């Protein structure tokens, strides 16, 4: 590539553009070939380079904006009101409510059975009256057991 530059420089020793003389001396050619200095640039090259730099900055800015947008969307999808964490909390709440609904349905079924039994079975009605209200039938004996006194003086 360095040799190619040297040939290019030798083929165009005195180039005139825009009224500026860009002639390259032999000593300068050696320095240009070794890569120490770059040959003088024409105004077209400068203009092209500015356009290229502007395009690079525009691309850099666009990529930065896309990355920023992606990060913001990611954070919102994780921590927002409708994000993944909220979704997991709602799932847990849904499961606990489903279990509670099942328990209440079981209690409801038991209460319905008890209502039917109270309405249709006199034996069940009597049993509930004895348990809940302490009622005693005509033929029942009542035994009262009194507690012993702690230190009554008798052995």
Provide an overview of this structure.
The chain is mainly α and 155 residues long. The protein is 68% helix and 3% strand. It is built from 5 helices and 2 strands, in the order αββαααα. It has helices spanning 2-11, 26-34, 43-79, 84-120, 122-133, and strands at 16-17, 20-21. A hairpin with a 2-residue loop joins strand 1 and strand 2 (20-21). Helix 1 (2-11) packs antiparallel against helix 2. The longest helix has 37 residues, at 43-79. The chain is rod-shaped and about 140 Å long. The protein starts with a helix and ends in a 22-residue tail after the last helix. Residues 1-9 and 11-21 have low confidence and may be disordered.
Topology:
Elements: H1 2-11, E1 16-17, E2 20-21, H2 26-34, H3 43-79, H4 84-120, H5 122-133
Antiparallel strand pairs: 1-2
List keywords for this structure.
mainly alpha, 5 helices, 2 strands, disordered N terminus
With strands numbered from the N-terminus, the spatial order across the biggest sheet is 1-2
Shape: rod-shaped
> What is the radius of gyration computed over CA atoms, rounded to a whole number of angstroms?
50 Å
Number of helices: 5
CA distance, first residue to last residue: 125 Å
What percentage of residues falls in helices of 4 or more residues? 55-70%
The total of beta strands comes to: 2
Largest sheet, strands/sense/barrel: 2 strands, antiparallel
Give me the strand/helix succession.
HEEHHHH
Strand content: under 5%
Structural class label: mainly alpha
**Average pLDDT, all residues:** 80
In short:
It is built from 5 helices and 2 strands; from the N terminus they run αββαααα.
